[in-house]
Amino acid sequence: MLQTGFNNSIEFAKKLDAEDQLRRFRSHFLIPCVKGREQIYFLGNSLGLQPRHTKEEINVILDQWASYGVEGFFLGPGRWLDFHEGLTRPLAEIVGAAPHEITVMNQLTVNLHLMLVSFYRPVGKRRKILCEAKAFPSDQYMLQTHVRHHGLDPDEVIIEVQPPKGEHVIREEDILQAIREHHDELALALFSGVNYYTGQVFDMRAVTDAAHEFGIPAGFDLAHAVGNISLELHNWNVDFACWCSYKYLNSGPGAVGAAFIHERYHRDKNIERFGGWWGHDKDARFRMEKEFMPIGTAEGWQLSTPSILLYAAHKAALDMFEEAGWDNLLTKQKLLTDYFWFTLDDINASTSRQVINLITPREERRRGCQVSMFMLNSGKEIFHELTRRGVMVDWREPNVVRAAPVPLYNSFEDVWTFGQIVKGIIQAT
Question: What is the pLDDT of residues 90-108, one digit of tens each?
């Protein structure tokens, strides 16, 4: 069903771009070019583009290292010892948390393991974990190996909520029903914020509330959610969450990750955690004492001295979010995504047979930037032809094309051009 208010023409797309208050941010990113032609980059859900001033921020650190050596931790207004504080402030707005509830450290799967040390405490009958079916493979591997570390069998412990037969997305009522059904056996509920394959946004508040009703901790992998959708982790009472920063946060390949731990746990002396020097009480850190005393914030979960070079790349990206304004980005995201859906509906309406099944939920509250297109005919051929024509999307087996126009650097003309290319390919096959 075509959305009203839109027009499928280059003139209309250019009109939307002319009215876009964030259009100047496109020039702040390095867009891949092939033979001098700028590509249409719809892969922000996989690896965000490089901000132009990333190199400059990294060079600042290199210059400090050259000038001060180890004293760079203590000298200058951007001393490395405090670098973390400049990152948690913008992240707090993006994830809906207080800055002291965020720690920037490690990478995503490492942080999930660390959070399970604290929040997965199998005791007696309560030893099972509830999660989504077809979670990102790294999450599945993390759960399997962490469960085995406790001497348990993943096949007996991990409960996956499946989509109904013949469907692609998981029904929210099935998640809540699974919590109720298994509540006396569950030690943890762990879901994605956004499913990587379908682009489905889960109702994190409802999952958390349902889990807490039975005293079950609730955590989330926000890899495809942070920088993409509106989040309120503190107000939703989420126990913990982890994310990477190389997708929608544009902080570079292998970028430093982060974790949210609700403030109610920060000074809980009974909570289990792994300790490390960088998580030790700051006032006592350099006394080099034997007994671990965690910092009374989310930083108390830190282990090792962070990579300041990765911090610098993260800062360059977060500067873009602060300058653009998170609310402004969410507003554009909605309009840009709505227009993308309009073009895809128009493609299906223009063909004698349906070629694209849009498996991402259509409701606004259940989707973000990403649209997952289940290709009913000639999927691989269409994907390869898109690549040949300068459109960068990705392929997920068995036959899904994922595309994610993001508000910081994608334009409405990008979306319109994509639609025209796909329509032309389909008509020619």
Answer: 999 999 999 999 999 999 9
5 DSSP assignment = T
Query: What are 392-416's pLDDT values in tens digits?
Result: 999 999 999 999 999 999 999 999 9
Domain residue ranges of the chain, discontinuous segments joined by +: 10-30+326-428, 57-322
Q: What is the DSSP secondary structure assignment for residue 200, as one 8-state letter?
A: B
Distance CA 252, CA 48 (A): 7
Rounded Cα distance, 373 and 399, in Å: 8
43 pairs with which residues across the strands?
404
Torsion over CA: 138, 143, 149, 151 (sign): negative
Same fold for the domain at 10-30+326-428 and the one at 57-322?
no
Per-residue pLDDT averaged across 202-211, rounded?
98
To which CATH superfamily is domain 10-30+326-428 assigned?
Answer: Aspartate Aminotransferase, domain 1 (3.90.1150.10)
Cα-based distances in Å from 402 to 228, 246, 425? 15, 17, 17
Whether 317 and 51 have beta carbons less than 8 Å apart is answered as yes
Contact 260, 233 (CB under 8 A): yes
State residue 2's pLDDT score. 47
- How far CA 358 is from CA of 211, 216, 353, 374, in Å, comes to 31, 34, 14, 6
- State pTM to two decimals: 0.96
CATH class of 57-322: alpha beta
